[in-house]
Amino acid sequence: MKIAVAVINKNENAEISSQAGRAPYYLIFDEKGELLEAISNPFAVGGGGAGFAVAKMLADKDVNIVIAGAIGANMASALDERGIKYYEKQGFAKEIVREILNGVD
């Protein structure tokens, strides 16, 4: 299982970004809550369609769950199409991942 968290910087304790599609970074954690990868979001700035593009980018990385402060309708639809669960949460990345994992287990 891989969990992607939209964050404002690349630290595993970073604050969760309020926007999923325009988040500056994504942190990808494994099923144990360990940080696997920190990636810059190439769709954080620019025209429309960020939600669709980010959903595809995360699906290509085999992500199962996405966490962000807010997930727009277009991104939610794109995640649903790919069978990716998502949660709207506020707080800090590693802490929220642990909460989700405790709920999943």
Keywords:
3 helices, Nucleotidyltransferase, domain 5, alpha/beta, 5-stranded mixed sheet, 5 strands, about 100 residues, about 25% strand
Summed up:
By secondary structure, the protein is an alpha/beta fold. It is built from 3 helices and 5 strands, in the order βββαβαβα. It has a 5-stranded mixed beta sheet with strand order 3-2-1-4-5, with helices on both faces.
Please explain how this structure is put together:
This protein is of the alpha/beta class. The chain has one domain: Nucleotidyltransferase, domain 5. 30% of the residues lie in helices and 23% in strands. It contains 3 helices and 5 strands; from the N terminus they run E-E-E-H-E-H-E-H. It has a 5-stranded mixed sheet with strand order 3-2-1-4-5, with helices on both faces. Strand 2 (25-29) and strand 3 form a beta hairpin. Helix 1 (50-60) packs parallel to helix 2 (73-81). The chain is globular and about 35 Å long. The termini are close together.
Distance between the termini: 12 Å
CATH class category name:
Alpha Beta
Strand fraction: 15-25%
CATH fold type: Nucleotidyltransferase, domain 5
Helix content: 25-40%
Computed structural class: alpha/beta
The global form is globular
* Element pattern in H and E: EEEHEHEH
Major sheet details: 5 strands, mixed
Q: Strands of the biggest beta sheet: in what spatial order? A: 3-2-1-4-5
Q: How many individual helices?
A: 3
Tally of structural domains: 1
Task: Determine the CATH superfamily.
Answer: Dinitrogenase iron-molybdenum cofactor biosynthesis domain
The whole-number mean of residue pLDDT values reads 95
Mind telling me which CATH architecture this is? 2-Layer Sandwich
Uncertain spans: none
Based on CA atoms alone, the radius of gyration comes out at 12 Å
- Overall number of strands: 5
